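Appendix C reproduces, verbatim, an entry submitted by the partner laboratory led by Prof. M.T., so that reviewers can inspect both the input and the predicted structure.
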Amino acid sequence: MKTYYAKPNEVEREWVLIDAEDQVLGRVATLAANILRGKNKPQYTPHVDTGDFVVIINADKVRVTGNKGTDKHYYHYSGYPGGLKDETFNEAMAKHPERVLEHAIKGMIPKTTLGRAQAKKLKVYAGPEHPHAAQNPRKIEVEG
């Protein structure tokens, strides 16, 4: 029996909707990363983008457990002396809640050309509205 490898033109993509309201950040990110990579499909092939499109709504209502709200820091460096900036999870959620979820999910995807292509299929929105109603996304519940 030969091993099946999915071809890029054979992949059928669907749209998936995840509501992040009152869900734990890591659980939502793990579910979204697996769907983006296609690991939830039987025809998953590591070197082919077999994943689906993921739409996440209510990103501003995602939560973290324990003291991570004040203890979790996001850093970025400008490249200049004294250019290291940091902000806590609570500060980041107040300014740009979509980026917090995107950062968590992109950290779970390979840092390759294939990973960047998979990350482009991620759409994150702070509120309950999204412009992808025409694609009829299938709603998925986060377990846990």
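The chain has one domain: 8-65+96-140. Additional entries are available on request from the coordinating office.
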